[in-house]
Protein backbone atom coordinates (compact mmCIF):
# COMPACT_ATOMS: atom_id res chain seq x y z
CA UNK A 1 0.00 0.00 0.00
CA UNK A 2 1.37 3.40 -0.94
CA UNK A 3 2.10 5.80 1.92
CA UNK A 4 -0.40 8.56 2.62
CA UNK A 5 0.43 12.29 2.66
CA UNK A 6 1.61 12.23 6.27
CA UNK A 7 3.86 9.21 5.72
CA UNK A 8 5.29 10.81 2.56
CA UNK A 9 6.12 13.99 4.48
CA UNK A 10 7.86 11.94 7.18
CA UNK A 11 9.91 10.00 4.66
CA UNK A 12 10.89 13.22 2.88
CA UNK A 13 12.06 14.79 6.12
CA UNK A 14 14.09 11.72 7.04
CA UNK A 15 15.75 11.59 3.63
CA UNK A 16 16.72 15.27 3.74
CA UNK A 17 17.35 15.24 7.52
CA UNK A 18 14.98 18.17 8.01
CA UNK A 19 13.63 19.29 11.36
CA UNK A 20 9.98 18.35 11.91
CA UNK A 21 7.64 20.78 10.14
CA UNK A 22 10.46 22.66 8.34
CA UNK A 23 12.27 22.49 5.02
CA UNK A 24 15.67 24.14 5.29
CA UNK A 25 16.02 25.04 1.63
CA UNK A 26 18.84 27.51 2.20
CA UNK A 27 19.33 27.67 5.98
CA UNK A 28 22.85 27.35 7.44
CA UNK A 29 24.01 25.40 10.50
CA UNK A 30 24.40 28.65 12.43
CA UNK A 31 20.68 29.47 12.09
CA UNK A 32 18.46 28.77 15.05
CA UNK A 33 15.71 26.15 14.78
CA UNK A 34 13.07 28.91 14.53
CA UNK A 35 14.93 30.67 11.70
CA UNK A 36 15.43 27.39 9.86
CA UNK A 37 11.71 26.66 10.16
CA UNK A 38 10.69 30.10 8.82
CA UNK A 39 13.14 29.94 5.90
CA UNK A 40 12.09 26.43 5.04
CA UNK A 41 8.40 27.34 4.95
CA UNK A 42 9.13 30.41 2.82
CA UNK A 43 11.19 28.30 0.41
CA UNK A 44 8.39 25.76 0.02
CA UNK A 45 5.84 28.55 -0.53
CA UNK A 46 8.00 30.17 -3.22
CA UNK A 47 8.40 26.80 -4.93
CA UNK A 48 4.63 26.30 -4.81
CA UNK A 49 3.95 29.73 -6.33
CA UNK A 50 6.56 29.20 -9.07
CA UNK A 51 5.02 25.82 -9.86
CA UNK A 52 1.53 27.31 -10.10
CA UNK A 53 2.74 30.11 -12.39
CA UNK A 54 4.45 27.58 -14.67
CA UNK A 55 1.38 25.35 -14.72
CA UNK A 56 -1.20 28.04 -15.47
CA UNK A 57 1.09 29.81 -17.96
CA UNK A 58 1.46 26.56 -19.88
CA UNK A 59 -2.29 25.92 -19.74
CA UNK A 60 -3.04 29.44 -20.98
CA UNK A 61 -0.52 28.95 -23.79
CA UNK A 62 -2.07 25.63 -24.78
CA UNK A 63 -5.65 26.93 -24.63
CA UNK A 64 -4.84 30.13 -26.52
CA UNK A 65 -2.56 28.69 -29.17
CA UNK A 66 -3.39 25.00 -29.61
CA UNK A 67 -7.07 24.52 -28.73
CA UNK A 68 -8.37 26.05 -31.95
CA UNK A 69 -11.67 24.21 -32.09
CA UNK A 70 -12.61 24.81 -28.41
CA UNK A 71 -12.25 21.14 -27.54
CA UNK A 72 -13.06 20.86 -23.81
CA UNK A 73 -10.31 18.25 -23.34
CA UNK A 74 -7.30 20.54 -23.07
CA UNK A 75 -4.01 18.75 -23.65
CA UNK A 76 -1.40 18.65 -20.92
CA UNK A 77 1.25 20.00 -23.28
CA UNK A 78 1.57 21.07 -26.94
CA UNK A 79 3.44 17.85 -27.62
CA UNK A 80 1.02 15.41 -26.01
CA UNK A 81 -0.84 13.12 -28.43
CA UNK A 82 -4.25 14.43 -29.52
CA UNK A 83 -7.48 12.52 -28.73
CA UNK A 84 -8.42 9.99 -31.38
CA UNK A 85 -11.58 11.88 -32.35
CA UNK A 86 -10.07 15.38 -32.26
CA UNK A 87 -11.18 17.68 -35.09
CA UNK A 88 -8.45 17.86 -37.71
CA UNK A 89 -7.94 21.41 -38.93
CA UNK A 90 -6.52 22.54 -42.23
CA UNK A 91 -3.49 24.83 -42.43
CA UNK A 92 -5.74 27.70 -43.56
CA UNK A 93 -8.08 27.20 -40.60
CA UNK A 94 -5.19 27.17 -38.16
CA UNK A 95 -3.68 30.30 -39.72
CA UNK A 96 -6.94 32.29 -39.75
CA UNK A 97 -7.79 31.35 -36.16
CA UNK A 98 -4.36 32.25 -34.82
CA UNK A 99 -4.42 35.50 -36.80
CA UNK A 100 -7.67 36.51 -35.07
CA UNK A 101 -6.19 35.66 -31.69
CA UNK A 102 -3.08 37.73 -32.36
CA UNK A 103 -5.27 40.64 -33.52
CA UNK A 104 -7.42 40.50 -30.38
CA UNK A 105 -4.35 40.26 -28.16
CA UNK A 106 -2.64 43.22 -29.83
CA UNK A 107 -5.64 45.58 -29.72
CA UNK A 108 -6.20 44.79 -26.03
CA UNK A 109 -2.58 45.49 -25.15
CA UNK A 110 -2.72 48.77 -27.05
CA UNK A 111 -6.03 49.64 -25.37
CA UNK A 112 -4.42 49.09 -21.97
CA UNK A 113 -1.70 51.56 -22.96
CA UNK A 114 -4.43 54.04 -23.94
CA UNK A 115 -6.15 53.50 -20.60
CA UNK A 116 -2.86 54.25 -18.86
CA UNK A 117 -2.64 57.63 -20.62
CA UNK A 118 -6.22 58.39 -19.53
CA UNK A 119 -5.69 57.40 -15.89
CA UNK A 120 -2.44 59.37 -15.63
CA UNK A 121 -3.97 62.49 -17.21
CA UNK A 122 -1.70 62.51 -20.25
CA UNK A 123 -4.57 62.94 -22.72
CA UNK A 124 -6.50 66.08 -23.58
CA UNK A 125 -10.20 66.35 -22.71
CA UNK A 126 -11.08 67.02 -26.35
CA UNK A 127 -9.53 63.70 -27.31
CA UNK A 128 -11.59 61.80 -24.73
CA UNK A 129 -14.80 63.52 -25.87
CA UNK A 130 -13.91 62.83 -29.49
CA UNK A 131 -13.32 59.14 -28.71
CA UNK A 132 -16.70 59.00 -26.94
CA UNK A 133 -18.45 60.55 -29.95
CA UNK A 134 -16.79 58.13 -32.38
CA UNK A 135 -17.70 55.22 -30.10
CA UNK A 136 -21.36 56.27 -30.06
CA UNK A 137 -21.33 56.60 -33.85
CA UNK A 138 -19.96 53.08 -34.25
CA UNK A 139 -22.48 51.67 -31.76
CA UNK A 140 -25.36 53.29 -33.63
CA UNK A 141 -23.94 51.90 -36.87
CA UNK A 142 -24.23 48.42 -35.38
CA UNK A 143 -27.53 48.77 -33.51
CA UNK A 144 -29.52 50.94 -35.93
CA UNK A 145 -27.68 49.69 -39.02
CA UNK A 146 -26.52 46.10 -39.26
CA UNK A 147 -28.91 45.04 -36.50
CA UNK A 148 -32.29 46.71 -36.84
CA UNK A 149 -32.15 47.77 -40.50
CA UNK A 150 -30.29 45.01 -42.31
CA UNK A 151 -30.68 41.95 -40.04
CA UNK A 152 -34.34 42.42 -39.06
CA UNK A 153 -35.79 44.85 -41.64
CA UNK A 154 -37.48 46.60 -38.71
CA UNK A 155 -37.57 49.72 -40.87
CA UNK A 156 -36.40 50.93 -44.26
CA UNK A 157 -33.80 53.56 -45.06
CA UNK A 158 -33.10 55.64 -48.12
CA UNK A 159 -29.71 55.62 -49.80
CA UNK A 160 -28.07 58.53 -47.88
CA UNK A 161 -28.97 56.99 -44.51
CA UNK A 162 -27.82 53.53 -45.62
CA UNK A 163 -24.44 54.95 -46.59
CA UNK A 164 -24.13 56.79 -43.25
CA UNK A 165 -25.00 53.65 -41.30
CA UNK A 166 -22.59 51.54 -43.37
CA UNK A 167 -19.74 53.95 -42.62
CA UNK A 168 -20.67 54.09 -38.92
CA UNK A 169 -20.79 50.29 -38.75
CA UNK A 170 -17.36 50.01 -40.36
CA UNK A 171 -15.83 52.15 -37.60
CA UNK A 172 -16.68 49.44 -35.05
CA UNK A 173 -14.57 46.73 -36.79
CA UNK A 174 -17.15 44.02 -36.05
CA UNK A 175 -17.02 42.23 -39.38
CA UNK A 176 -18.72 43.49 -42.51
CA UNK A 177 -22.47 44.10 -42.60
CA UNK A 178 -22.93 41.00 -44.75
CA UNK A 179 -21.16 38.68 -42.29
CA UNK A 180 -22.75 40.40 -39.29
CA UNK A 181 -26.27 39.94 -40.68
CA UNK A 182 -25.66 36.31 -41.64
CA UNK A 183 -24.40 35.37 -38.18
CA UNK A 184 -27.11 37.35 -36.39
CA UNK A 185 -29.94 35.79 -38.35
CA UNK A 186 -28.53 32.37 -37.48
CA UNK A 187 -28.36 33.49 -33.85
CA UNK A 188 -32.10 34.18 -33.87
CA UNK A 189 -33.05 31.01 -35.73
CA UNK A 190 -31.05 28.75 -33.39
CA UNK A 191 -30.69 30.82 -30.22
CA UNK A 192 -28.43 29.26 -27.57
CA UNK A 193 -27.91 26.00 -29.43
CA UNK A 194 -24.71 24.72 -31.02
CA UNK A 195 -25.77 26.32 -34.31
CA UNK A 196 -25.82 29.72 -32.58
CA UNK A 197 -22.45 31.38 -33.31
CA UNK A 198 -22.27 32.66 -29.73
CA UNK A 199 -24.23 30.09 -27.75
CA UNK A 200 -24.56 31.37 -24.17
CA UNK A 201 -25.04 27.83 -22.86
CA UNK A 202 -21.31 27.31 -23.45
CA UNK A 203 -20.48 29.87 -20.77
CA UNK A 204 -19.88 33.58 -20.41
CA UNK A 205 -16.39 33.65 -21.95
CA UNK A 206 -17.42 31.73 -25.06
CA UNK A 207 -20.56 33.78 -25.70
CA UNK A 208 -18.74 37.05 -24.99
CA UNK A 209 -15.52 36.72 -26.98
CA UNK A 210 -14.47 33.06 -27.19
CA UNK A 211 -16.60 32.43 -30.28
CA UNK A 212 -14.46 34.96 -32.20
CA UNK A 213 -11.19 33.27 -31.17
CA UNK A 214 -11.84 29.77 -32.48
CA UNK A 215 -13.45 27.87 -35.28
CA UNK A 216 -17.26 27.74 -35.16
CA UNK A 217 -19.12 24.63 -34.06
CA UNK A 218 -19.87 22.08 -36.82
CA UNK A 219 -23.59 22.68 -36.22
CA UNK A 220 -23.06 26.31 -37.18
CA UNK A 221 -21.21 25.28 -40.32
CA UNK A 222 -24.07 22.97 -41.31
CA UNK A 223 -26.74 25.67 -40.88
CA UNK A 224 -25.02 28.82 -42.10
CA UNK A 225 -25.70 28.09 -45.78
CA UNK A 226 -29.44 27.93 -45.04
CA UNK A 227 -29.64 31.64 -44.12
CA UNK A 228 -31.39 33.66 -46.82
CA UNK A 229 -29.00 36.49 -47.80
CA UNK A 230 -30.49 37.44 -51.17
CA UNK A 231 -31.71 40.76 -49.79
CA UNK A 232 -28.16 41.64 -48.70
CA UNK A 233 -26.70 40.58 -52.03
CA UNK A 234 -29.13 42.90 -53.83
CA UNK A 235 -28.18 45.92 -51.68
CA UNK A 236 -25.19 47.55 -53.37
CA UNK A 237 -24.27 49.50 -50.22
CA UNK A 238 -23.84 46.25 -48.29
CA UNK A 239 -21.84 44.59 -51.06
CA UNK A 240 -19.69 47.70 -51.61
CA UNK A 241 -18.77 47.72 -47.92
CA UNK A 242 -18.15 43.96 -48.02
CA UNK A 243 -15.67 44.21 -50.89
CA UNK A 244 -13.79 47.21 -49.43
CA UNK A 245 -14.15 46.32 -45.77
CA UNK A 246 -10.47 45.93 -44.81
CA UNK A 247 -9.19 49.28 -46.18
CA UNK A 248 -12.35 51.11 -45.06
CA UNK A 249 -12.02 49.76 -41.52
CA UNK A 250 -8.33 50.68 -41.35
CA UNK A 251 -8.99 54.27 -42.44
CA UNK A 252 -12.23 54.92 -40.54
CA UNK A 253 -11.42 53.13 -37.30
CA UNK A 254 -7.68 53.69 -36.91
CA UNK A 255 -6.27 56.36 -39.24
CA UNK A 256 -8.89 59.12 -38.95
CA UNK A 257 -9.37 58.84 -35.15
CA UNK A 258 -5.59 59.18 -34.84
CA UNK A 259 -5.09 62.07 -37.24
CA UNK A 260 -8.09 64.25 -36.28
CA UNK A 261 -7.06 64.94 -32.62
CA UNK A 262 -3.44 65.50 -33.69
CA UNK A 263 -4.43 67.84 -36.55
CA UNK A 264 -7.20 69.86 -34.89
CA UNK A 265 -6.06 70.39 -31.30
CA UNK A 266 -2.45 69.25 -31.21
CA UNK A 267 -2.81 65.96 -29.39
CA UNK A 268 0.26 63.74 -29.27
CA UNK A 269 0.05 61.34 -32.21
CA UNK A 270 0.71 58.21 -30.13
CA UNK A 271 -1.76 59.25 -27.43
CA UNK A 272 -4.42 60.01 -30.04
CA UNK A 273 -3.99 56.58 -31.60
CA UNK A 274 -4.00 54.64 -28.33
CA UNK A 275 -7.02 56.49 -26.86
CA UNK A 276 -9.24 57.55 -29.77
CA UNK A 277 -8.54 54.49 -31.93
CA UNK A 278 -7.48 51.48 -29.86
CA UNK A 279 -9.12 52.05 -26.47
CA UNK A 280 -12.30 53.37 -28.05
CA UNK A 281 -12.56 50.40 -30.41
CA UNK A 282 -11.98 47.77 -27.71
CA UNK A 283 -14.56 49.36 -25.37
CA UNK A 284 -17.25 49.51 -28.07
CA UNK A 285 -16.39 45.95 -29.10
CA UNK A 286 -16.95 44.61 -25.60
CA UNK A 287 -20.10 46.70 -25.24
CA UNK A 288 -21.61 44.90 -28.21
CA UNK A 289 -20.33 41.54 -26.99
CA UNK A 290 -22.25 42.06 -23.74
CA UNK A 291 -25.46 41.56 -25.71
CA UNK A 292 -24.40 38.00 -26.53
CA UNK A 293 -23.18 37.20 -23.01
CA UNK A 294 -24.56 39.30 -20.14
CA UNK A 295 -27.93 39.95 -21.81
CA UNK A 296 -28.38 36.18 -22.23
CA UNK A 297 -27.59 35.41 -18.59
CA UNK A 298 -28.56 38.13 -16.13
CA UNK A 299 -31.75 40.16 -16.03
CA UNK A 300 -35.52 39.96 -16.10
CA UNK A 301 -37.76 38.14 -18.54
CA UNK A 302 -41.03 40.09 -18.57
CA UNK A 303 -42.08 39.00 -22.07
CA UNK A 304 -40.93 35.37 -22.40
CA UNK A 305 -39.57 33.43 -19.44
CA UNK A 306 -38.83 30.37 -21.59
CA UNK A 307 -35.79 31.83 -23.35
CA UNK A 308 -32.35 32.91 -22.15
CA UNK A 309 -32.33 36.57 -23.37
CA UNK A 310 -33.08 39.08 -20.62
CA UNK A 311 -33.78 42.76 -20.02
CA UNK A 312 -30.45 44.25 -18.90
CA UNK A 313 -30.33 48.00 -18.31
CA UNK A 314 -26.52 48.11 -18.03
CA UNK A 315 -26.14 46.54 -21.47
CA UNK A 316 -28.68 48.97 -22.89
CA UNK A 317 -26.64 51.92 -21.68
CA UNK A 318 -23.43 50.39 -23.06
CA UNK A 319 -24.94 49.65 -26.49
CA UNK A 320 -27.16 52.70 -27.07
CA UNK A 321 -30.33 50.69 -26.60
CA UNK A 322 -29.82 47.01 -27.48
CA UNK A 323 -29.89 45.52 -23.98
CA UNK A 324 -33.68 45.07 -23.81
CA UNK A 325 -33.06 41.59 -25.13
CA UNK A 326 -36.00 39.60 -23.84
CA UNK A 327 -38.34 41.95 -25.67
CA UNK A 328 -36.15 41.84 -28.77
CA UNK A 329 -36.14 38.03 -29.04
CA UNK A 330 -39.90 38.02 -28.53
CA UNK A 331 -40.53 40.75 -31.12
CA UNK A 332 -37.36 40.94 -33.28
CA UNK A 333 -39.01 43.07 -35.96
CA UNK A 334 -39.78 46.08 -33.70
CA UNK A 335 -37.59 49.00 -34.78
CA UNK A 336 -37.46 50.32 -31.18
CA UNK A 337 -35.91 47.05 -30.00
CA UNK A 338 -37.72 47.66 -26.70
CA UNK A 339 -40.99 48.64 -25.08
CA UNK A 340 -39.91 52.17 -24.19
CA UNK A 341 -41.79 55.41 -24.42
CA UNK A 342 -38.72 57.67 -24.24
CA UNK A 343 -35.12 57.76 -25.46
CA UNK A 344 -33.20 57.80 -22.18
CA UNK A 345 -31.65 54.38 -22.72
CA UNK A 346 -32.27 53.94 -26.42
CA UNK A 347 -30.24 56.42 -28.47
CA UNK A 348 -30.52 54.23 -31.55
CA UNK A 349 -34.30 54.63 -31.57
CA UNK A 350 -33.84 58.38 -31.23
CA UNK A 351 -31.46 58.29 -34.20
CA UNK A 352 -33.98 56.40 -36.36
CA UNK A 353 -36.89 58.64 -35.34
CA UNK A 354 -34.84 61.75 -36.10
CA UNK A 355 -34.17 60.59 -39.65
CA UNK A 356 -37.79 59.57 -40.05
CA UNK A 357 -38.71 63.25 -39.65
CA UNK A 358 -36.90 64.06 -42.91
CA UNK A 359 -38.12 60.91 -44.66
CA UNK A 360 -34.79 59.03 -44.77
CA UNK A 361 -36.16 56.34 -42.41
CA UNK A 362 -39.62 54.98 -43.12
CA UNK A 363 -41.87 51.91 -42.70
CA UNK A 364 -41.03 51.84 -38.99
CA UNK A 365 -42.53 48.60 -37.66
CA UNK A 366 -43.57 48.23 -34.03
CA UNK A 367 -45.78 46.05 -31.84
CA UNK A 368 -49.18 47.30 -30.67
CA UNK A 369 -49.38 47.82 -26.92
CA UNK A 370 -52.32 45.43 -26.69
CA UNK A 371 -50.29 42.57 -28.19
CA UNK A 372 -47.34 43.31 -25.89
CA UNK A 373 -49.61 43.29 -22.84
CA UNK A 374 -51.20 39.98 -23.73
CA UNK A 375 -47.90 38.32 -24.62
CA UNK A 376 -46.36 39.43 -21.34
CA UNK A 377 -49.29 38.03 -19.37
CA UNK A 378 -49.12 34.73 -21.19
CA UNK A 379 -45.40 33.96 -21.33
CA UNK A 380 -43.65 36.55 -19.11
CA UNK A 381 -42.13 36.01 -15.68
CA UNK A 382 -44.51 38.52 -14.06
CA UNK A 383 -41.95 41.30 -13.60
CA UNK A 384 -43.59 43.60 -16.14
CA UNK A 385 -45.96 46.04 -14.50
CA UNK A 386 -49.30 45.69 -16.23
CA UNK A 387 -50.79 49.06 -17.27
CA UNK A 388 -53.85 50.03 -15.26
CA UNK A 389 -55.85 50.78 -18.39
CA UNK A 390 -55.22 47.28 -19.67
CA UNK A 391 -56.33 45.52 -16.49
CA UNK A 392 -59.42 47.70 -16.37
CA UNK A 393 -60.50 46.63 -19.85
CA UNK A 394 -60.17 42.95 -18.99
CA UNK A 395 -57.67 42.01 -21.69
CA UNK A 396 -56.37 39.24 -19.47
CA UNK A 397 -59.58 37.26 -20.07
CA UNK A 398 -58.80 36.38 -23.68
CA UNK A 399 -55.18 35.23 -23.44
CA UNK A 400 -56.05 32.04 -25.26
CA UNK A 401 -56.53 34.10 -28.43
CA UNK A 402 -52.96 35.40 -28.33
CA UNK A 403 -50.59 33.59 -30.70
CA UNK A 404 -47.74 31.83 -28.90
CA UNK A 405 -44.39 33.56 -29.05
CA UNK A 406 -42.33 32.49 -32.05
CA UNK A 407 -38.79 32.89 -30.79
CA UNK A 408 -36.99 31.48 -33.84
CA UNK A 409 -37.85 34.36 -36.17
CA UNK A 410 -35.02 36.68 -37.19
CA UNK A 411 -37.10 39.56 -38.50
CA UNK A 412 -39.75 40.98 -40.76
CA UNK A 413 -38.40 39.29 -43.91
CA UNK A 414 -38.37 35.83 -42.29
CA UNK A 415 -40.94 33.60 -43.96
CA UNK A 416 -41.49 31.85 -40.60
CA UNK A 417 -42.93 35.01 -39.07
CA UNK A 418 -46.54 34.30 -37.98
CA UNK A 419 -49.20 35.90 -40.15
CA UNK A 420 -50.98 37.07 -36.99
CA UNK A 421 -47.96 39.16 -35.97
CA UNK A 422 -47.63 40.57 -39.46
CA UNK A 423 -51.28 41.61 -39.53
CA UNK A 424 -51.18 43.14 -36.05
CA UNK A 425 -47.99 45.14 -36.62
CA UNK A 426 -48.15 48.92 -36.61
CA UNK A 427 -46.13 50.66 -39.31
CA UNK A 428 -45.24 54.34 -38.98
CA UNK A 429 -44.09 56.64 -41.78
CA UNK A 430 -45.36 54.30 -44.46
CA UNK A 431 -43.89 54.63 -47.93
CA UNK A 432 -46.18 55.65 -50.72
Automatic annotation (TrEMBL):
<comment type="similarity">
    <text>Belongs to the fatty acid desaturase type 1 family.</text>
</comment>
<feature type="transmembrane region" description="Helical">
    <location>
        <begin position="125"/>
        <end position="147"/>
    </location>
</feature>
<dbReference type="InterPro" id="IPR005804">
    <property type="entry name" value="FA_desaturase_dom"/>
</dbReference>
<keyword id="KW-0443">Lipid metabolism</keyword>
<feature type="transmembrane region" description="Helical">
    <location>
        <begin position="244"/>
        <end position="265"/>
    </location>
</feature>
<keyword id="KW-0472">Membrane</keyword>
<dbReference type="InterPro" id="IPR015876">
    <property type="entry name" value="Acyl-CoA_DS"/>
</dbReference>
<feature type="region of interest" description="Disordered">
    <location>
        <begin position="378"/>
        <end position="399"/>
    </location>
</feature>
<keyword id="KW-1133">Transmembrane helix</keyword>
<dbReference type="GO" id="GO:0004768">
    <property type="term" value="F:stearoyl-CoA 9-desaturase activity"/>
</dbReference>
<feature type="transmembrane region" description="Helical">
    <location>
        <begin position="159"/>
        <end position="178"/>
    </location>
</feature>
<dbReference type="GO" id="GO:0006636">
    <property type="term" value="P:unsaturated fatty acid biosynthetic process"/>
</dbReference>
<keyword id="KW-0444">Lipid biosynthesis</keyword>
<keyword id="KW-0812">Transmembrane</keyword>
<keyword id="KW-0275">Fatty acid biosynthesis</keyword>
<keyword id="KW-0560">Oxidoreductase</keyword>
<keyword id="KW-0408">Iron</keyword>
<dbReference type="GO" id="GO:0005789">
    <property type="term" value="C:endoplasmic reticulum membrane"/>
</dbReference>
<protein>
    <recommendedName>
        <fullName>Fatty acid desaturase domain-containing protein</fullName>
    </recommendedName>
</protein>
<keyword id="KW-0276">Fatty acid metabolism</keyword>
<dbReference type="GO" id="GO:0005506">
    <property type="term" value="F:iron ion binding"/>
</dbReference>
<feature type="domain" description="Fatty acid desaturase">
    <location>
        <begin position="128"/>
        <end position="332"/>
    </location>
</feature>
<feature type="transmembrane region" description="Helical">
    <location>
        <begin position="102"/>
        <end position="119"/>
    </location>
</feature>
<dbReference type="Pfam" id="PF00487">
    <property type="entry name" value="FA_desaturase"/>
</dbReference>
Amino acid sequence: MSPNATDSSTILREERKMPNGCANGWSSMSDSAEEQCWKGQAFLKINEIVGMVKYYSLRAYIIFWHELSMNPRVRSSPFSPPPADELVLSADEIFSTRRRRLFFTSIHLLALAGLYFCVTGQVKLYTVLFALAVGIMSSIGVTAGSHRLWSHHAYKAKLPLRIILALFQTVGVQYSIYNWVRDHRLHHKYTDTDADPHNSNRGFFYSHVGWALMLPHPAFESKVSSVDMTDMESDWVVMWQYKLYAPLAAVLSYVLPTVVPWWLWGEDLLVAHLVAAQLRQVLTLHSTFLINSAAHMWGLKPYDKNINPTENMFVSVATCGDGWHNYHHTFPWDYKNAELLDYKLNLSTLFIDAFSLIGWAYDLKTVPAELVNKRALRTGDGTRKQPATDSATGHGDDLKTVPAACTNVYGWSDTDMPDEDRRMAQIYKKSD
